[in-house]
Amino acid sequence: QVQLQESGPGLVKPSETLSLTCTVSGGSISSSVYYWGWIRQPPGRGLDWIGSIYYSGNTYYNPSLKSRVTISVDTSKNQFSLKLNSVTAADTAVYYCARHGTGYYGWFDPWGQGTLVTVSS
Amino acid sequence: EIVLTQSPGTLSLSPGERATLSCRASQSVSNTYLAWYQQKPGQAPRLLIYGASSRATGIPDRFSGSGSGTDFTLTISRLEPEDFAVYYCQQYGSSRTFGQGTKVEIK
Questions:
Q1: Interface residue A100 vs chain B (CB under 8 A)
Q2: What are the pLDDT digits (tens) for A54-64?
Q3: Chain B partners of A40 at a C-beta cutoff of 8 Å?
Q4: CB-CB: which of B44, B56, B98 is closest to A46?
């Protein structure tokens, strides 16, 4: 059974870059069937998709965040990563990684447990 | 971008009652590419329904989804104590967007 686990700093200073990694276990990130995505949830608020990546490196992003986001993949480590630059307090959120398919199979499942990132000086 | 609007914001019901949650899209969702998730405090969302009406693995049959086009519904036929949570809809027909959530609380 595939499991995902987020890791990275829980505190980032304003204007700096938020960096998180998602480690996939129980399955290969190089599956031709799936994309790997990042979703965030500000405290007390709803879910917001950030972007997704295919094992080949093909990416697509939420247009509202595209200018600040980079998602990359390391197939040798079965990991994918998120970088969000020029962060502000508005980027404080629980960040989740999740797997999704394409077309009809585009739902997110499974999800990582999430990691809280606070932007503060 | 397809905007999903969920209603009501909060639903106050008693165990055993029927819950009906609505998700309305700002434009038609391609091919019923709509999912529903349940989220409990401190937990990641859990997939309940995909393709608007198909239950995910292990999801009890008291959960059902319906709808097409711009109007979708999640129904919980008889609320169990563990069903009180926040529910989100999500479309994956055009990029990916989530609704703002409906909280089902104990009356």
A1: yes
A2: 999 999 999 99
A3: none
A4: B98
Binding-site residues on chain B for chain A (CB distance < 8 A): 1, 31, 33, 35, 37, 43-47, 50-51, 56, 88, 90, 92-93, 95-101
Question: What is the tens place of the pLDDT at every residue in B54-101?
Answer: 999 999 999 999 999 999 999 999 999 999 999 999 999 989 999 999
DSSP character string of chain B: ---EEEE-SEEEE-TTS-EEEEEEESSPPGGG-EEEEEE-TTS--EEEEETTTEEPTT--TTEEEEEETTEEEEEESS--GGG-SEEEEEE-SSS-EE---EEEEE-
**Segments of A13-107 assigned E as strands:** 18-25, 35-41, 48-54, 59-61, 69-74, 79-84, 93-100
